[in-house]
Amino acid sequence: MTRFGDFAPLCTNTPSYTWCNLFYRQLSSDSSLKSILTGLSADANSAPVGINPVCGIAKAGTTIDGPHQGTGKSLGNIANIVVCAVSMLVILGLIVASQKRKAAVGRVELRNLLILYFLTLPFQLLTTGSFLAQGSTALVALTAIHAGLVAAFFWALLMNALIATQKIEDGTPAALVPYLLFCAAFFAGTTYIAFDVGLGITTALGPSNDPRELRSIPLFVLTSIWPAVAAILYFGIMTYIVLAVLNETRPMWYYILSAGLFVLSQLAWFLLGKVICEGSTSKVDGSFVATILETAAVGVLYLAWRSITEDSWDDDPYPMYPS
Prior knowledge:
GO molecular function: unfolded protein binding
CATH topology: Rhopdopsin 7-helix transmembrane proteins
Number of helices: 9
Strand content: under 5%
Number of strands: 2
CATH class: Mainly Alpha
Structural class: mainly alpha
Order of helices and strands: HHEEHHHHHHH
CATH superfamily: Rhodopsin 7-helix transmembrane proteins
Shape: globular
Keywords: Membrane, Transmembrane, Transmembrane helix
Pfam families: Chs7 (PF12271)
Strand order of the largest sheet: 1-2
Oligomer: single chain
Transmembrane segments: 78-98, 110-132, 138-158, 179-205, 225-246, 253-272, 284-305
InterPro entries: Chs7
Number of domains: 1
Helix content: 55-70%
């Protein structure tokens, strides 16, 4: 029976589910538990992301041969690698564009949000790209940092909504200090917990007492529940600001589209992943579709922010008023 905090169903049925990198080491480092790793996960040098996945993309450079894998040398998760690289260029362009909008409310905070998302992309490329052997310390470290960045990103997202209420003046220490402090706290806390899970340092915040359960409530909360809660709160606050405070409707469509793209990205990750993986004989999975949709959601979020903020201050220090 699946319990709250269980990763086993996700690690088996969702190809390239990043956080499974942390649990593989739990099993592979204990000789008494290695027998649990079967099928695609049996050989750490070629194993895809996941724990005994029904379908997965083998490590780049290894020979593949199986019902869902075909034959030949694996290129790794090449589709998601390309999409992550292109997404980095897109987000870099948005960072530059946001910096130019000098008078826009929340400019600094939105720029920091974009920077955080930009930072998640190379880590996603590395943690799902099948570059490193499963169970390696390097892969655990990259995955732990990736988890911390994701948790910090969603705090930054929520903080952008709070700044948009203008209860606190944007760009001031009163806004930036809690923004940065909580970003650091979410990053440090989540990264530590992820390391704890991956390296088995303790059982207080890390995995359960039985590694075979693939269970960690703190990790599940910070990588699954917290992002969903932050996204819902952000959408609710921005809906209030746009419809009730600004009395506008057009910007709201941007926020609705962004929310829709984010939901679709999660559906692509969890529902389409196995279908695409099996249909392509383990050459690609749903991760690249999810990354496209996530990046599109962030891009539309920028357009929504742009539509409700000013581009620049009035250059005329003595504007003409009607008499």
